[in-house]
Design a protein that fits this description.
Length: 1129
């Protein structure tokens, strides 16, 4: 049903998308039928009844909708004692079914079936829920039919919208868009299958004899199976799961699509549908969506979003409590808002602004009503749908709160409907649960997301799902705190089902003894192939004797370490232009990363072969393959299947298979050979499974499936063999790499370690990025990550900086200052250690390096100052301990700068951070020879002047003096150096690089096929032809367009000339020209081609064909020309 308002202010109904009738005719017709409810607002269908239903809303004198519509009605035929309702019903039926007999029974039956029969018109639970909500009805949810009340309320709402009293619904609002879950889609397909099956059963029951009927003969389940198979096999929404890494699997499961059956089409979807809507907040991630034609149509659920029973997306909020019951246990310690008086005596029990004590609680019970308190944020979490949320004022998650969870500020930044407002705490209803509630899982894994441009953040979140699992996963030095949850929920790690104690751990199993239960054995997945050919390999994360709790991660997967997501590697990065090697986003890589297998990944490819039963006889999997040397089958077992562990390369046989050829008439020579060598030389062709071009690796698994053991093999297949080949791929030039901020690039060169730029202490840089890739892209998050990563590495901690609530610039400066202090103290401790050594009786020649002498010195120096001698062997503890005493010796308070933290701490200490920065700058200026006393306020300004004069960068800027690896000279400008997490993406050069000399050709055009999969050639297109034309390379161009392309005769002659060492002949006519001629001839044009000598070039049957010459094949050509007469001399 579609309700429309016409220009002349009358309302019509379009029924079943066919004919239209005035709405009053439809309302009168409705009054003649029953809708299944006891109370009906429509009884008689008279003018008075209809006008009374709408008189309170249809009251605009300029636009009287119902009066205008009544004027459009036809004259009523009330003969035969018909009421006006019955006459309207018959009129409605005539309009809808013009050819059918217009009787009252037919009309009644038609309307009741169309509207009030659930099989024909089913609102479903969600339809009833939305109608009740929009039209303010209270019809029970199980009642899934349309009622008269629904239609009346709908028309009332239309009138109110037309009069400007109500707002029209926003089609893009998430209150009006729902998610169809997989279960619902399968249910719909199953319903279709069951309906088809029902129809078949009814047909059979009507055709067959009663005595022959039985369930077996009636019921055919094929329609149901076909419907489900069609859904899983060919539906647009049924996709092959992305298993590149655990994050890719998780985000694919959380994908929302506006495409598919019942959805939009890419071409028709406009900007409004794709754009971010205010109702997406906390429900759909505003960042994570594909680039290209699907942008905005495919989204991901936000971090805390869930789908409710009706298919609407909900997001959680913390309830702000403003009143509490007088006998509530939560009243203690709360501040009262307004005086609380005794209802009987009128005495004030608690004054306004006073805190409720334990004594007051007894008195407050007498009040008997709710007590207003200063608003506080409770632990109660409510999930709200988009339309419910629009009614409330919601505060930001990081609004400052007191210890009692009350708001600190008088004015709070809030959201209301689609806008941002500042409100008093008394007005606030809810508060966000977390700052990263607005974004999805992938975007929540990007540190400093708030400093990145949205386009680059989109690329970063999408590229994290393309990261290849590496051999040695490494947790990011700078993370966001979502890594544990992302790994846990991905389903690729093993989680303890119950509490217990680990009793044994092997490479493939973990055994856990649970209280009151037998030992539970967890099986680990070892070197399994994922859907994207990456390797899934689980490793134990527990040790024997460890006590574990339910929900703990006990085994890591690929791309996880210690139960946290670890997609890339932490490497030392410099932003520097280096000999043009990182032009246009190219990346320079140190050879050390290749040698240490930092970016090495394992890829497993599977190859399958089937032995079928053909018309000429069964195919056979065997070691006995015709015309194949012993060397080619050395790794095959007696059945012709390759052994596990064999190294294989391009064109190597994995499974030997022979297929029978059609028998043909034998020549006398062949009959003689058969007589001599026996029947063994029968006609079979080699159809073995071979490794494709460009592939190599090691066989890690072989599976054989036979029809006896596996009855579900395809029809005609007797045997199937599946071989898995694993390959270790080191990072190489041409591979794509990226950071988490959309900063992607291709490795242009692997540079020897000795040529890489190095720091003052000799540390070579691992990776060089182009500094021009930062300002234009506006992804400044990578710079902050580099700085914080450097400080974290030097101080020996992991930084967790959540999205929208992470480390500030001043905090990063303070951490860089601490890192410089530790490094400086460590450097000076080495000098002091050698000086101390000279005073001792040690033999200097027995000391190997700085580290050894420093360890001896620290034990002597720090051992007597209260530090733990055993822990001084731990580098981080020793470095911080040395720095503390070094600072103390220089007259500074180390407790204001460092805390020897064993547990994770929140680094929100502005005073300590300011003190640390000032201390660092003072000591840095002293080290440069600037010894003047400077006040706290002027330290930064003076340090900047010293930097300008000296050229040495301030430690808090994160820049360092870098030296050229080839000359050893420092670069003329300080360089940003730090630690960044870098990913190796699935776009690997080994999958894309491809070369061909000769190979398959297209049947029609005779040109080489295209693409790596077809072993094709490189396309020489229009622009390449223009380039050769412009250069004047005429012969190269002619060769490209003839001999190297589709000149069949020229190809043969050229091949022969090359083999024989003769000069190459002139090319002839390309095959594509012949195709063009035939095309023109088929259009009825008489096309003739005349050669240089004036002779006609013929195409078609009269054409002379040239075949490739047959090369001498040794003994295999024995008896080839036996018995044939020689012609000529």
């Amino acid at each position: 049903m579609e309700f429309e308002t016409r220009k002349s202010d009358y309302i019509i109904l379009k029924f079943n998308r066919k004919r239209t009738v005035p709405i009053t005719v439809f309302l009168r017709a409705l009054s003649a039928v029953e809708d299944g409810l006891s109370e009906s607002p429509l009884r008689n269908g008279t003018d008075e009844e209809i006008m009374s239903l709408f008189q309170d809303v249809d009251n605009n004198p300029d636009r009287l909708f119902m009066a205008s519509t009544l004027h459009q009605e036809p004259e009523w035929d009330l003969s035969g004692g018909k009421t006006i309702a019955e006459a309207a019903l018959i009129e409605f039926f005539k309009k809808m079914r013009p050819g059918d007999p217009a009787t009252l029974e037919n009309a009644k039956g038609f309307l009741e079936e169309q509207l009030f029969d659930q099989r024909h018109y089913d609102l479903e639970r969600v339809g009833r829920y939305k109608l009740n909500q929009k039209l303010d009805l209270s019809i029970p949810i199980p009642h899934r039919n349309v009622t008269k009340s629904d239609i009346i309320r709908l028309i009332r709402r239309m009138i109110l919208i037309n009069n400007g009293v109500e707002h029209a619904d926003d089609i893009d609002h998430l209150g009006n868009r729902r998610v169809k879950t997989v279960g619902e889609l399968i249910q719909n397909k199953l319903r279709i299958g069951l309906r088809r099956m029902e129809r078949v059963i009814k047909e059979r029951m009507s055709i067959r004899d009663q005595e022959q009927l039985s369930p077996v003969t009636l019921v055919n389940i094929r329609p149901v199976v076909a419907a489900l198979r069609e859904f899983f096999g060919s539906s647009q929404l049924s996709q092959f799961m992305d298993q590149t890494n655990p994050l890719a699997e998780l985000r694919h499961k959380r994908t929302l699509s506006a495409l598919g059956p019942g959805g939009l089409r890419r071409e028709r979807a406009g900007f409004d549908v794709r754009d971010v809507h205010h109702s997406h907040y906390g429900r759909i991630c505003p960042i994570e969506t594909p680039e290209g034609p699907n942008i905005g149509l495919i989204g991901r659920l936000a971090s805390f979003a869930r789908v409710n029973e009706y298919g609407f997306i909900e997001t959680p909020y913390r309830k702000v409590v403003k009143v509490l019951p007088c006998d509530g246990a939560n009243l203690g310690g709360r501040t009262v808002r307004g005086n609380v008086t005794d209802p009987k005596s009128g005495n004030v029990i608690v004054k306004d602004g006073e805190r409720i004590t334990a004594k007051m609680l007894r008195s407050l019970v007498k009040v008997g009503s709710e007590i207003p308190v200063v608003p506080f944020v409770s632990e109660q979490v409510d999930y709200l749908s988009a339309d419910a949320e629009d009614k409330y004022v919601i505060a930001q998650a990081n609004a400052p709160l007191t210890d009692e969870h009350e708001f600190v500020r008088e004015r709070i930044s809030c959201r209301y409907h689609s806008g941002f407002v500042f409100q008093n705490p008394e007005v606030v209803d809810y508060m966000d649960v977390a700052p990263h509630q607005v974004v999805g899982i992938s975007a929540a894994l990007i540190p400093f997301l708030e400093h990145d441009d949205a386009n680059r953040a989109l690329m970063g979140s999408n590229m994290m799902a393309q990261a290849v699992p590496l051999v040695r996963p490494e947790i990011p030095m700078v993370s966001t705190g979502m890594e544990y949850n992302a790994a846990l929920d991905s389903g690729q790690v093993i989680v303890a089902i119950e509490d217990g104690e680990v009793v044994s751990v092997t490479g493939s199993t973990i055994s856990v003894k649970e209280k009151g239960h037998p030992t539970r054995v967890y099986q680990l997945r070892k070197y399994q192939r994922s859907n994207q050919s990456t390797c899934i390999d689980q490793r134990p994360a527990v040790v024997k004797g460890q006590v574990i709790k339910r929900g703990d991660i006990i085994a890591d997967s690929s791309s996880t370490e210690s139960g946290e997501l670890a997609l890339g590697q932490n490497v030392v990065v410099a932003f520097l232009s280096w000999e043009g090697g990182n032009f246009e986003d190219a990346i320079l890589l140190s050879e050390r990363l290749v040698q240490e297998d930092r970016f090495t990944s394992v890829h497993i490819e599977k190859y399958e072969v089937e032995a079928r039963d053909t018309k000429l006889g069964p195919e056979e999997i065997t070691r006995d393959i015709p015309n194949v040397g012993e060397d080619a089958i050395k790794d095959l077992d007696e059945n012709g299947i390759i052994r596990i562990g064999a190294e294989v390369g391009p064109n190597d046989i994995l499974v030997g298979k022979i297929t029978p050829k059609g028998e043909k008439e034998l020549t006398p020579e062949e009959r003689l050979l058969r007589a001599i060598f026996g029947e063994k030389s029968r006609d079979v062709k080699d159809t073995s499974l071979r490794m494709p071009h460009g592939e190599r690796g090691k066989v890690v698994d072989v599976k054989v499936f036979t029809r006896e053991e596996n009855s579900d093999l395809s029809a005609g297949v007797d045997m199937m063999v599946r071989v898995s080949v694993a390959q270790r791929r080191k990072i190489t030039a041409g591979d794509k790499m990226a950071g988490r901020h959309g900063n992607k690039g291709v490795v242009s060169k692997v540079v020897p370690v000795e040529d890489m730029p190095f720091l003052e202490d000799g540390t070579p840089v691992d990776l060089i990025l182009n500094p021009l890739g930062v300002p234009g892209r506006m992804n400044i998050g990578q710079v902050l990550e580099v700085h914080l990563g450097w400080a974290a590495k030097r101080l020996g901690f992991r930084a967790v900086t959540p999205v929208f609530d992470g480390a500030s610039e001043s905090e990063i400066e303070a951490e860089l200052a601490r890192a410089w202090l530790v490094d400086e103290a460590w450097k000076e401790s080495a000098a002091a250690a050698w000086k101390w050594l000279k005073e001792q009786e040690y033999d200097e020649n027995s000391i190997q390096d700085d580290d050894e002498v420093r360890n001896l010195y620290l034990e002597e120096w720090l051992g007597g100052r209260g530090y733990k001698p055993r822990r001084l062997n731990e580098v981080n503890y020793a470095r911080q301990s040395a720095a503390r005493e070094w600072l103390r010796d220089h007259g500074y308070d180390p407790d204001q700068i460092f805390a020897l933290d064993e547990e994770p701490v929140h680094r929100r200490h502005p005073e300590r951070d300011d003190y640390t920065v000032r201390t660092c700058l003072r000591l840095w200026m002293e080290a440069l020879g600037y010894a003047k006393k400077v006040s706290d306020e002027k330290v930064l300004n003076v340090a900047q002047e010293v930097m300008r004069e000296n050229g040495s960068p301030m430690p808090i800027l994160g820049k360092q003096t870098l030296r050229d690896g080839k000359t050893g000279l420092p670069y003329d400008q300080p360089v940003t150096v730090g630690v960044m997490t870098i990913l190796k993406l699935h776009h690997l050069v080994e999958d894309k690089v491809h070369a061909r000399s000769t190979g398959p050709y297209s049947l029609v055009t005779q040109q080489p096929l295209g693409g790596k999969a077809q072993f094709g050639g490189q396309r020489f297109g229009e622009m390449e032809v223009w380039a050769l034309e412009a250069y004047g390379a005429a012969y190269t161009l002619q060769e490209m367009l003839t001999v190297k392309s589709d000149d069949v005769q020229g190809r043969v002659n050229t091949y022969e000339a090359i083999v024989k060492g003769e000069p190459i002949e002139e090319p002839s006519i390309p095959a594509s020209f012949r195709v063009l001629v035939k095309e023109l001839q088929s259009l009825g044009l008489a096309v003739e081609a005349v050669g240089e000598g004036g002779d006609m070039v013929r195409f078609g049957k009269d054409e002379e064909k040239t075949h490739p010459p047959r090369m001498d094949t040794g003994l295999l050509g024995l008896g080839e020309n036996f018995g044939r007469k020689k012609t000529g001399s």
